Amino acid sequence: MAIKKRKPARRQSSSKRAPSRVREGDCLDLLSRVSTDSIPLAFADPPFNIGYSYDTYHDRRSTDDYLDWSTRWMSEIHRVLQPNGTFWLAIGDEYAAELKVIATRELGFVCRSWVVWYYTFGVNCQQKFNRSHAHLFHFVCDPKSFTFNDDAIRVPSARELVYGDRRANPKGRLPDDTWILRPQDLTSGFNTDDDTWYFPRVCGTFKERSGWHGCQMPEQLLGRIIRSSSHPGDLVIDPFAGSGTTLAAAKKLDRSYLGFEISADYVAHIRKRLASIKNGQALDGSPEPLKSVPSTPQGKLLKKPSRRRRTKS
Ligand SMILES: C[S@@+](CC[C@H](N)C(=O)[O-])C[C@H]1O[C@@H](n2cnc3c(N)ncnc32)[C@H](O)[C@@H]1O
To answer: Based on the structure, what is the number of domains in the chain?
Structure first.
C-alpha cells in the first residue's frame, strides 16, 4: 500500500541554508535522525548486491534480505523528502525492476523518467552481450509539484545544430532519456586501450578518478541531476556517499549536502576531497554532452551533393 505524503505547501524557504555535513555510519540509523519532509533532493547509488568489494560493506545479501533492506532505506528517503521532493536512484540490471516496483507501488513515489545511462567502455562479458548501461530512476513524491529546472539542462537540437534552422528554440531541447557517456565526451582522460575497469563509472584512466573508490560516478552526471532537480542553496542528501561525488557536485553547484557513508576510511577520503573544492568551482570532466547531435563545422545547413557528383560516386 503506497504511503501518501501530505499535500505540498509552498516551496520551503531557502533563506535559512542547511549546513553541509558528511556522517560516518549506517544510513538507516542516520536517516532516522533526519526530520520528516525536510529535504528537496535525494540521490542514491546503493550497493547493487553483486558481490562488489567495498571497504567494509559486504555486497552479497540474499535476494529477500536485499529487497527488504532496500525497502527500508527507500522508505526513509520518502519520509525525509519534502512533499515536492525528488529522489534519483542509480541501480544495475539485477534489481532495477524490483526496486522500481517497490518505490512506486509500495512507497508512493511516481516515476518521471527511467533514464538509461549508456557507456561504451570497460566491460567484457562472457557468453552474454557486454553490459553498457546502468539505470537512473527519476522519482518524485508528487507529480503535480516538483522541481524541474528544464532551462538548466537543455541541449542544442538537431534542428539548430545540423540544419541551422532559424525556427529552432534558441534555448535548445531537453536531453533524451538515454544519457550517453562516450570516450569522446571525456577526452581529457579516457584511454581506449584500457579495459581494467570492472564496473565502469569513472574509468581508472580518467584524470577525474580519485583512485580510492571503485564506484566513483562522473561529476557531470550528478551535475545534470542536481541542476535539474534542485535550486541553489537547497540541501541534497546521499545515503551512500562512496567517494563523495554527489557531495562534491553539490558543493560546486552551490547546494548544501548531507552525505552518509558506512566506511570510516571512505569518509576520511571524502572529507579531503570536499576540503579541496571551492563553492562554484567547475565540475570535473568535460562539460556534459552538450550536443546531442553531431555538429557541422558552422552549424549550417548541409549542402546536398549535386546530381552529377552523386552519379560519379
Ligand atoms: C556504489 S557506492 C557509491 C558510489 C558513489 N555514488 C560515488 O560516486 O562515489 C556505495 C557506497 O555505499 C556504502 N554503504 C554500503 N552500505 C551502507 C550503509 N548501510 N550506510 C551507508 N553507506 C553504506 C559503501 O561503503 C559504498 O561506498
So the answer is: 1
